What we know:
Blueprint (H helix, E strand, L loop, with lengths): L5 H39 L2 H22 L6 H17 L1 H12 L3 H28 L7 H50 L6 H19 L1 H12 L3 E7 L4 E7 L2 E6 L2 E5 L3 H15 L5 E6 L4 H6 L7 E5 L3 H9 L1 H6 L9 E4 L3 H7 L4 E7 L6 H4 L4 H10 E10 L7 H13 L11 E9 L3 E9 L12 H4 L7 H7 L20 H14 L1
Parallel strand pairs: 5-6, 5-8, 6-7, 8-9
Antiparallel strand pairs: 1-2, 2-3, 3-4, 9-11, 10-11
Amino acid sequence: MTPPTGAAQATRLREVWLLVATFLVAVAGLIYELIAATLSSYLLGDSIRQFSLVIGIFLSAMGLGAYLSRFVAQAMGGFVWAQILLGILGGFLAPVVFLAYAWVDNVSLPLFGLLISIGVLSGMEIPLIARVLKQIGAPEFRFENVLSVDYVGALAASVAFPLLIVPQLGLMSASLAFGALNLAVAGLSLWIFRAEISRAQVVVWALAFVLTLGGLAHSERLVDASQAALYEDDIVLSEATPYQQITVTRYRDRTRLFLDHSIQFDTLDEHRYHESLVHPAMALAPRRASVLILGGGDGMAAREVLRWADVEQVTLVDLDPRVTELFRDHADLSALNDHALRDPRVRIKNRDAWQWVEDSDAVFDVILIDLPDPKTLALSKLYSRSFYGLLGERLSPRGVMVTQAGSPTYARDAFWSVARTLEAARNPIAPGQGLYVRPYHTYLPSFGDWGFLMATQQDFAPRELELPPAVANNLRYLNAPMWHAAQVFGEDSGPIQVEINTLQTHPLVGYYLDGWAQWFE
């Protein structure tokens, strides 16, 4: 057999490198798309709408890039320039968007401007690589091989993003790291195709690579700078999990929890919320031996439940294990819930609420639903008639269920949609009959007017709010007069005719987003 010539070896090296580069740039391109979609969801809300919009814009921009690639005279030179620009624009995607949100409170222009630019450059990559492969006379070149490698790279990125990249790097470092990857591809291409490369490309590449590596080395400072502008108080904890961004801030004795940059509680007034959520249901339930809490990973609701001496077991279901871990094991955070999550009566289940309820056959005397607001379809399903029907089967015949339901003032349609949905949910002890619902609300300085909905399988019997002395003496807000006042609604926040929330229609998301937008946009 005749050994391959030097020219054949060089061609083979270039062919192999271009296929490897195809894989790497496919990974980087999809990571940028996922980072943009996640940023859009974090900062603009409504994850389904934002992910859909980002994907559509990115793919359209890629199509434009593929078309524009025909006007690039020198394929390899164009590919290298595309990698350099992607390293800069993609690498600094997250830093620019976060800092824009923190300093000017407007991310749409930089986010979608960068997204379109990255999409155009990403769309140029495969056509340019295919042209280079043809130009070097790669043996047995087939365009579908390039596409196959590209799709495999996309698969690798989609799997790695939630499982490895976000938990280990966070969005800021991930953006810069994959910018460095694009620049590394550019650098190796510059060396392998050095005879066809201009000095200007080498100089710009070197400057971009140093800039990106410098940004990566100081990514924590970039995170600190953006968060310092976002939050009023000192940041004592900030972590990205596969599910959300967790941020805890503190000023003197005041602690606040933010999930995906949205406030969850403020220790100045969280007692108003949690006492209102927990104690009316606990007081009106004839039995309290077994209690289910959906959400509430901070342990505040569990703290209030455990004030009742006859509670035997509390099952807390929260999706993110890191939240329950922090509020169980972190000394300062655990103190906020009186170490409730360490109580032997509390069992923590880190699972999706719907799946857990569907798989469980347990029955509870009290069910407390402390889930995030229904601003996305994924959350809206947990406020649907189907989900409430499942919960009804987990409720004892004389049990009491209560859910937080947002603001009847800021999102009036959303609040009463949840009420109507509960009323339409399947009643296990009365086929054809819905659940009985009692709405109430209270004022929270951190959130404004906030509403709750209590539901039972049997009609509410006239009964005063009776709190045992051991409970009442430890409360800071709720008492019988406050409970009576909580059930009175003004003309501008009272019942209205709205649609129930089903898995097919999801009107609740629109009600919620439109309501808050009317007040705050």
